[in-house]
Amino acid sequence: MVVGRVPQNRKARGMSADTIVVYGHDLVNEIIGRWSFAELVYAAITDGSRPTTAQARLIDVLLTTFVDHGVTPSSLAARLTFLGAPEAMQAAVAAGLNGAGSRYLGTMQQAAEMLRDAVLEHKVSRSDPRLSTIACEIVDAYRMAASPIPGLGHPEHKSGDPRTPALMRIARETELAGVHCELLFALGEAYRQRSGKQLPVNAAGLAGAIVIDMGLPPEAAKGLALIGRAGGLVGVVLSELRQPTAQQIWDGLR
Predict the structure, then answer these.
(1) For 226-247, how does the pLDDT look when each residue is reduced to its tens digit (9 = 90+)?
(2) Which of 238, 244, 224, 237 is nearest to 67 (CA)?
(3) Counting CB atoms within 10 angstroms of each CB, which of 74, 90, 93, 116 has the fewest?
(4) What is the pTM of this model?
(5) What whole-number distance in Å separates Cα of residue 181 and Cα of residue 213?
(6) Which CATH number covers residue 203?
């Protein structure tokens, strides 16, 4: 509860000594018990907008998809940090989040930026017949630069990311899948044509495409990954409490 004299800027935002306003909404009387966490996350990244039912469903799906990544540098960093500072769960979670980069989680934003820039440059729509040509141009550019294409391939799931069909199904059910999703799948086909090799669309890339199709900025894609992963890393720390493994990992490195 906000107590004492209310500053003028808070009054301008509708706050008083006995109210709490979050993103322009009354926390106690409007949000608690009425909004889902996914809805509040959407409000946070849009500075106050409440999502449609379809948008809230997709936000929830994205948050849950990236909660856990199994044994990764992120989870190992969290466990080892907790070993050194068991009094600071926040340090362990922060250490894990610091590993969200170009190989884990960070590709969501990279894919989103790539797809957004291509759509803006060529001014294409979802049914535009030029999508395949544009996809081939993008693939050629990345191959010439010897750079990995954001959103394609997976280090473990060589034949296809099992999360991708589920994400795309829900994106279509909510009618929020648009030109960015279509272009991403066109990239997968273009890569097959150009290289003769299969490089399936991964969940991180599709998540980035979905975020842009929802009208959100690329940075929101990585932000959603971090929010979801933070929950997973709390789980990693609690798992370390139940079944400690960090000491064994550390002993094996010495």
Answers:
(1) 999 999 999 999 999 999 999 9
(2) 224
(3) 90
(4) 0.88
(5) 7
(6) 1.10.230.10
pLDDT tens track for 79-89: 999 999 999 99
Q: Considering the domain boundaries, does residue 119 fall inside one?
A: yes
- E-state strands within the chain: 21-22, 25-26
In a domain, 64, yes or no: yes
Flag whether 110 is in a domain. Answer: yes
Cβ burial of 22 (10 Å; 0-12, 13-18, 19+) is: middle
**pLDDT for residue 1 is more than 70:** no
94: containing domain: 51-254
Assigned domain for 206 exists: yes
Helix residue spans in 8-72 (DSSP H): 8-12, 37-46, 53-65
Sign of CA pseudo-dihedral 10, 12, 17, 19:
negative
